[in-house]
Specification:
By secondary structure, this protein is of the alpha/beta class. The protein has 2 domains: 3-256, 3-Layer(aba) Sandwich (Rossmann fold), CATH 3.40.50; 271-456, Rossmann fold (3-Layer(aba) Sandwich), CATH 3.40.50.720. The chain is built from 23 helices and 14 strands. The chain has helices at residues 3-8, 42-54, 59-72, 74-83, 85-92, 96-102, 104-107, 124-134, 161-175, 194-197, 212-229, 242-252, 261-285, 301-316, 321-325, 342-345, 369-376, 393-402, 422-428, 459-470, 475-479, 490-508, 521-531, and strands at residues 114-117, 141-145, 182-188, 234-237, 258-260, 294-297, 328-332, 335-336, 380-383, 407-410, 434-437, 444-446, 449-451, 454-455. The strands form 3 sheets. Strands 8-7-6-9-10-11-14 form a 7-stranded mixed β-sheet, with helices on both faces. A 5-stranded parallel β-sheet has the order 1-3-2-4-5. Strand 7 and strand 8 form a beta hairpin. Helix 3 (59-72) crosses helix 4, helix 4 packs across helix 9 and helix 6 (96-102) runs antiparallel to helix 9 (161-175). One of its GO terms (molecular function) is NAD binding.
Length: 546
């Protein structure tokens, strides 16, 4: 029995069973399981699916239906997503994907990617090689998680596969990546959530999560094998717990084609929105851009990563690294991170937080967000605390008192973990807020005006994507207070961001397609648009984009 067959049949531990049509758990995102069904036109199939979705009573049931459609008819699935991305993105990704991950083993209906157990470390390279030998396409991008910190929901073990799949769904629908080139991966290294381990339906390893040392050894093998077997593939790390996320990024970012979405990807998107918001806040206050001061609620990997990426804004204004860092104040569960706080003095502060230790508070300690806001008088408030309602009315109203256009970004997701709702933000600031959130909120008519919320590799490439994103907001979007482009333009915006990334790679000298250096931005944009995948494009239909 081959290694992949052993893995598929669960001989290395309780892994998901096979569907009748499958002989491996290594199914790419675009794999199609053939089944007998009535012959319908594309339009009829799409209308039928939309009708079925409309009659589903809960988002989780809609998510389950779409998952089945993706496995059976990927082109129908992505046609539906592209046709109604605004309403279906929250179903295939946050917030619904959070519940789907929590209940992954209970609602499991078939394999969706590559499941790799830490017990299979000696055969890891063989498993990947066997997948490469049988796959119709080699992956362009791998999204890999160990399930240790899924959104704000904690350690969900093998249930993290839902995040890898969900993120790749968006890359196909919004970015135009060919689904056959997308490979979702979950690394099963156990889970520290006892209720999950003890669940009789749980499909993963029933053991405590591997130590960082053991996990690093496994990751070393995975990253090396992935680079050897798929040399042209980008590997995205998704939802690893903070200590591991930073350790892996530092170890691998200069060696492999990889990035960490929570540390770098989220940071670049938030930087793009912050640049747009800071410009508007400066216009409203009459104060220079250099006066921006940012308070973060949250001290995890995402918060530190976003703060470091946002420092680029101040560096572009001519600040030194130290001056830029001093525009940020980070609050974790123990309060403002200062050099006199007891855990800092005792050397017990998590290493990833050390960069933002404040040494200018003269021994004063600040335990609450309200105390820090009163002390700092910030222009911007960013939430990555995973604490629902953490931005209370008193704090939000105080931000509005301090600023004609307060910047408030409650970024925790899913919605059940968000620090502030869009409606409360508008009401408590008299509509003055510049708002972006980590999970979607519906537009609101406030005082007669439709208000829409924003939703929120080399370092220079990450920054290049952020600047391109900030410049993608058109005049109509800016006039309604949007900090990010509308989802209905996501394919054009994705291509525009890609132009920024390519140019940054060229400037850094790490680009591999040198022929792109000599063409204009408009020509590069056109080439990227032409390369974007669309459903049914191989059948001669139009490849027009949303």
């Amino acid at each position: 029995m081959s290694t992949s067959s052993k893995l598929a049949n669960g001989s290395s531990g309780p892994t998901p069973p096979l569907t009748p049509k499958s002989n491996s758990l290594a199914l790419p995102l675009g794999a199609c399981i053939e089944r007998s069904r009535p012959r319908l036109s594309r339009e009829q199939s799409l209308l039928r699916l939309q009708s079925q979705l409309d009659n589903m009573p809960t988002p989780l049931l809609k998510h389950g239906l779409l998952s089945r459609v993706r496995r059976e008819d990927p082109e129908l699935f992505f046609s539906a997503i592209q046709a109604d991305l605004v309403n279906l993105a929250p179903i295939v990704y946050t917030p619904t994907v959070g519940e789907a991950c929590q209940k992954y083993s209970q609602v499991y209906s078939g394999p969706e990617g590559l499941y790799l157990s830490i017990d299979d470390k000696p055969q890891l390279r063989q498993v990947l090689s066997e997948y490469a030998a049988t796959a119709s396409h080699q992956p362009q991008i791998i999204v890999v998680t160990d399930g240790s910190r899924i959104l704000g929901l904690g350690d969900l073990g093998i249930g993290g596969m839902g995040i890898s799949v969900g993120k790749l769904n968006l890359y196909v629908a919004g970015g135009g990546i060919d689904p056959s080139g997308c490979l979702p991966v979950v690394l099963d290294m156990g889970t520290n959530t006892e209720s999950i381990r003890d669940d009789p339906l749980y499909l993963g390893l029933r053991r405590p999560r591997a130590s960082l040392e053991e996990a690093t050894s496994f990751m070393d093998e995975f990253m090396a094998a992935a680079a050897d077997v798929f040399p042209n593939t980008v590997v995205q790390h998704e939802d690893f717990y903070s200590e591991a996320a930073f350790a892996f990024l530092e170890k691998y970012q200069d060696k492999y084609r990889m990035f960490n979405d929570d540390i770098q990807g989220t940071g670049s998107v938030i930087l793009g929105g912050f640049v747009a918001a800071a410009r508007r806040a400066s216009e409203a206050s009459g104060k220079p851009l250099q006066d921006q001061k940012v308070v973060f609620l949250g001290g995890g990997s995402a918060a530190v990563g976003v703060a470091k990426e946002m420092m680029t804004f101040f560096r572009m204004l001519g600040f030194t690294e130290e001056e830029a860092r001093n525009r940020f104040w980070l609050i974790d569960t123990k309060g403002l991170i200062t050099n006199t706080r007891y855990d800092v003095v005792a050397g017990k502060l998590a290493s990833h937080k050390e960069y933002f230790i404040r040494n200018d508070t003269e021994g004063k300690e600040f335990k609450t967000l309200a105390e820090v806001v009163e002390y700092v008088k910030p222009t911007a408030l960013v939430g990555l605390s995973t604490t629902y309602g953490a931005f209370g009315e008193d704090v939000v109203r105080r931000m509005a008192d301090l600023n004609p256009a307060p910047i408030i970004f409650p970024l925790s997701n899913p919605t059940s973990k968000c620090e502030l709702s869009f409606e409360d933000a508008l009401n408590w600031t008299d509509g003055k807020v510049l708002f972006a959130s980590g999970s979607p909120y519906d537009p609101i008519t406030y005082k007669g005006q439709l208000r829409e919320p924003g939703q929120g590799v080399t370092d220079s490439m990450i920054t290049g994507s952020a600047i391109a994103l900030s410049e993608a907001v058109d005049a109509d979007e800016a006039s309604t207070g949007l900090l990010y482009p509308r989802l209905t333009r996501i394919r054009d915006v994705s291509a525009q961001v890609a132009v920024g990334v390519v140019r940054a790679a060229q400037k850094a000298g790490v680009d591999t397609v040198t022929s792109l250096r000599d063409i204009s931005d408009d020509e590069l944009f056109a080439q990227i648009k032409k390369a974007q995948w669309s459903p049914y494009q191989n059948e001669g239909v139009s490849t027009s984009r949303l």
